[in-house]
Amino acid sequence: MQVFKDEKGREWNLEVNICTVKLVRDLLKINLLELEVGSPPLLTRLGTELMLLVDVIFVMLKEQADAVGVSDEEFGRGLNGPSILSAQTAFFDELCFFSGAWGGRM
Length: 106
Description:
mainly alpha
């Protein structure tokens, strides 16, 4: 599990696991198990389309956000340059760990 803070000082615990992968798939129709699929591939899109990445991260944190009453808009307002970089780093670190754990290729 990776932890990052947003601009408002809120701490978020980000973890890639089967439950979060399923939630992203169900809510965003994005399969994090198919990183090489698409043109450009999903992995490339996650690295270059900031709004897509933030949407994925928010869905992964949805349970935490709901518990503290943070909407997706409020979550977005809490992300500035440094906190976006922290969230991005946390996401890709988790994705690498998860992918390595199940033998997926990155």
